[in-house]
Amino acid sequence: MLTLEQNVSDFGEIRLLSEILLQDVTGRAGEKNDDCAHLDISGKHLLWSIDPCPTPVASWFGKASAEVWGCYTATINLSDIAASGGTPIGMLVSLELPDDTSINFIRGFQSGLIATLYAAGATLLGGNVKSAKKFGATGTIIGNAGKKRITRLISNNNCVAYLVGNSGNFWTAVIGNYFGWNGLSIDYQASLNTSLCFPRAQIEAGKIIGNLPFELACMDCSDGPANALFQLAQLNSLDIKLLPNPAWPLQSEYIHLLNEHNINIENACYQFGDWQLLCLIPSNECVLFENILHGLPVTKIGYATQGSGTVLHEDGRRLMETSLNQNFSGGYNSIENIEELLSRFMYLPIFR
After folding, report:
1. Cα–Cα distance, 207 to 58 (Å, whole number)
2. pLDDT tens digits for 55-102?
3. 90, 196: one domain
4. What CATH number has the domain bearing residue 225?
5. Taking CA 86 as the corner, what is the angle to CA 241 and CA 72, rounded to the nearest 5 degrees?
6. Does residue 13 lie in a domain region?
7. 175 and 71 in a common domain
8. Does residue 6 register a pLDDT over 80?
9. What does the alpha-carbon distance between residue 336 and residue 338 come to, in Å, rounded to a whole number?
10. pLDDT, tens digit, for every residue of 111-143?
11. Domain identity same for 109 and 172
């Protein structure tokens, strides 16, 4: 009987990594799928990561300038350093350019890249450039680890889940640009478009996290908090129960705009776009955690206890793996237009 060969879409990104790609990765077993590789060299603990620049959603609204591409190339790499509790040192960037790429585009890209790196205290260390049919940018970044070795693992089985960073601003910007702003002030529109076009990694929070006096697990939310919750629950064999109404740091005007277009706040806050950090904190350290990160947007979203790796809403609904932003499984990189984007991530329930 003929057996059809499996392809990557049969696996999805998470399974592909765990069952095949990470099998030959060196390093400590629990660190192989961390946001960064951990390098212990000559008594120093360094962090190293690599990521290609995603196509900005802003491109569908004519807002993906060269500066936006440069910003995203830096941000996706800086976010990995932040999630590992580190301080970024610098980046190498490899560019693939069609022969007819304008010099002004290159200057704009470089401007957005450098501005984002400098704002994070990092520099451009070099890179590569080559001719190609399509534009692409891939960065690799190195940083210093904090005093604490921050990974996605935690031994404590009585934890509280927090998101560090704003939530919901990105998707509010998408909704405003697509449907119209419905009277939202010019200042709010500008702020939301900054979230859409020039996201910032949680560098300040990452530095603090890397020097906390207790263990914690942390993961970058470049693929969305829902994806990060799923992975941390599975990796640590924890059952995470989410609060029914987290105190999302969203302006009431933004919530009104989302409600006008029947967008569930859960989708806007748990899907990708806002570049938060997801942290699992031992329950007895929550007060200290909140006090130390006072002044930064920190949202308590749920509780974790020993279990089988499920993520449940307090009302009993379960986080659906099919709703995750996951490569090779209908994730963002497979989306072809803005209507499909909204259908897939805003109108498909995350919990069922």
Report:
1. 29
2. 999 999 999 999 999 999 999 999 999 999 999 999 999 999 999 999
3. no
4. 3.90.650.10
5. 80
6. no
7. no
8. yes
9. 7
10. 999 999 999 999 999 999 999 999 999 999 999
11. no
Structure-block tokens of residue 1: 């009987």
pLDDT confidence of residue 235 = 95
167 and 126 co-located in one domain: no
What does the chain come to in residues? 352
Q: What is the pTM of this model?
A: 0.95
Cα(97)–Cα(147) distance, integer angstroms: 40
Which strands, in side-by-side order, build the sheet including 217-220?
Answer: 217-220, 277-282, 158-164, 298-306, 238-242, 311-313
Structure tokens at 42: 């000559």
Residue 216 pLDDT level (bands cut at 50, 70, 90):
very high
The single residue listed with the structure tokens 């989708």 is 267
Residue 242: closest CA among 313, 306, 168, 158: 313
Token output for 114: 């450098």
Strand partners, 46: 39, 144
Same domain, 125 and 209: no
- Distances from the Cα of 149 to the Cα of 45, 96, 213, 220, angstroms: 9, 35, 11, 15
Whole-number Å distance between alpha carbons of 191 and 189 = 5
Structural domain harbouring 116: 32-145
